[in-house]
Write a structure and sequence with these properties.
The protein has about 160 residues and is mainly alpha-helical. The chain is built from one helix and no strands. It has one helix at about 10-155.
Length: about 160
């Protein structure tokens, strides 16, 4: 007996096979898509974490090295400027003290030498003048006496 819209019993196993095939294909597609999505999410998370880690490590190494180089250059320049400043201040102090000492010594020596030269010159000039004056006086006296004697003797 055959009812309209009803399949004969011989077609049920075929339909059941098709139904199972469709069900299995849907199940496999869902399983594969779930498996692939899990695999891809794990792979992408690992890849992204590695790439982010690599990027961050490169960025941090560059930034840290640049900050360290800036800090070290500032620190070294500050240290060197302090050292140069200290060296220059010591050098200038020594130079100024040597200059002041040499100025004071030269001033003292010039005063001392001018005094001693003045004393020596005055002594020398007084001796020379006394000799010159004594010679001049003796010559004058001699001339005077010779004139006087010549006048006296002529009378």
């Amino acid at each position: 007996m055959h009812f309209p819209g009803h399949m004969p019993p011989t077609s049920w196993p075929c339909q059941q096979n098709q139904f199972i095939t469709i069900y299995l294909s849907i199940y496999l597609c869902q399983f594969i898509s779930i498996y692939l999505s899990i695999y891809l999410s794990i792979y992408l998370s690992i890849y992204l974490s590695l790439s982010v880690h690599i990027y961050l490590s490169i960025y941090l190494s560059i930034s840290v090295s640049s900050y360290l180089s800036i800090y070290l250059s500032i620190s070294v320049s500050s240290y060197l400027s302090q050292s140069v400043h200290i060296y220059l201040s010591i050098y200038l102090c020594q130079f100024i003290s040597i200059s002041l000492i040499s100025i004071s010594v030269s001033s003292y020596l010039s005063i001392y030498l001018s005094k001693s030269a003045y004393i020596y010159l005055s002594s020398y000039l007084s001796i020379y003048l006394s000799i010159y004056l004594s010679q001049l006086i003796s010559i004058s006296v001699h001339i005077y006496l010779s004139i006087y004697l010549s006048i006296y003797l002529s009378h």
